[in-house]
Amino acid sequence: MSTGLPLVTTADRRNRLGRRHRLAPSARAATLGEVADAVVALHATDAATVYLSARARLAEGYGPPAIERALYEDMSVVRLLSMRNTLFAVSAEFAPYVDSSTARAIAAKERRTFLKHLAEDGQGLGADWLAAAETAALDALDARGPLTGSQLSAAVPVLQQKITIGRGKKYEAETGVATRVIRLLAADGRIRRDRPRGSWTSSQFRWRHTQPWPAVPAAEARAEIARRWLRAYGPATEADLKWWTGWTLTDVRKALAAVGPEQVRLDDGGAALVCPGDTGPEPATEPWAALLPGLDPSAMGWADRSFHLDPAHRPALFDYAGNIGPTVWWNGEIVGGWAQRQDGEIVWRLLAAPGRDAEEAIGTEAARLGAWVGDARITPRFRTPLERELVS
């Protein structure tokens, strides 16, 4: 590697994270759409994550009701099954690119798999039956929606059908079709998640009939995602982008070639990629502390997170499947974890020694989080050793 490459230091990378991910107080966003675009996509597998990730990046006064309006009334941010076959929330302007680059292929694969299961079940169900079931579900949503999955199943008798998966095999199991049909409709963009039953922490979503996203050429869509991702997460590597998107290596390389990234040198002597012209040093922000939820994009944006996470902290902060739990940050580095107890108290523990100023700022941020959450109770979908310990 040439030593003549521009150097982007670990400090630069942490400064970028604080400013570009809207975590420093002076960089906080005015809308949920700005937050989603700043990090490209918000993890949405856990309903509370979208709200808590947004809270850490939004200006004061932007509470859960405003986020709900953005998601379910303005629909300026929408949920899509996309990168790594995972649910993300993205801005409506960006959604067609995510859909065309990633969600279309996932939807096609899901449909092939389900049709295979229908054929193997032996009841004579197939593509015609599935098309009729989907039409009946959409008709019910038009007449009575929005509806939860259980309400939709009750309203559409064909969705109460059961099939056997793996007939004659060790893993043979009888299952209903409603969840699979709803998942296919959502993957195709013909239905979208609406306001859930219960509070903002609930994942029991209602469903609404909508029109699919406008088509964008897949190669163009992947290039746009790669460009935005490099702007938010660069310096980063080809391997980081492949991990984050779940694309094939061929698609990753074609998308990067379309962007034309520049190469930079890192502190450890390795090389990484940035957007064209994005090689300069990043000015420091004011000191900042953040309490981010499990699966927050700032913790999940790279395959290699060593610039902001000491590998020694991984056993406490990750579950067995590699999902990161709630984290405490100081100036672009993960220094601990946090949890909410049943009485509502926000508790946290440092895994590093960032100093007295950091501890005071983290305590202030924990109090701000507790006031924002109010009476809501948050239990992460993916429990980690430290989070469990803090609430025990």
Can you describe this structure?
- Helices cover 42% and strands 16% of the residues.
- It has 392 residues and is α+β, with helices and mostly antiparallel strands.
- The chain has a domain of 113 residues.
- A 4-stranded antiparallel sheet has the order 11-12-13-14.
- The longest helix has 27 residues.
- It is globular, with a radius of gyration of 22 Å.
- It starts with 9 loop residues before the first helix and ends with a helix.
- The mean pLDDT is 95.
- This is Winged helix DNA-binding domain-containing protein.
- Pfam families: AlkZ-like.
Topology (elements, then pairings):
Layout: H1 10-20, H2 32-38, E1 42-43, H3 47-55, H4 64-72, E2 77-81, E3 87-91, H5 95-121, H6 127-144, E4 147-148, H7 149-155, E5 162-165, E6 173-176, H8 178-187, E7 191-196, E8 205-209, H9 218-233, H10 238-245, H11 249-259, E9 262-265, E10 271-274, E11 289-292, H12 297-300, H13 314-317, E12 327-330, E13 333-340, E14 346-350, H14 356-373, H15 385-391
Antiparallel strand pairs: 1-3, 2-3, 4-8, 5-6, 7-8, 9-10, 11-12, 12-13, 13-14
Protein name: Winged helix DNA-binding domain-containing protein
GO molecular function, one term: DNA binding
Pfam families: AlkZ-like (PF06224)
Describe the largest sheet.
4 strands, antiparallel
Cα radius of gyration in angstroms: 22 Å
Percent helix range: 40-55%
The rough form would be described as: globular
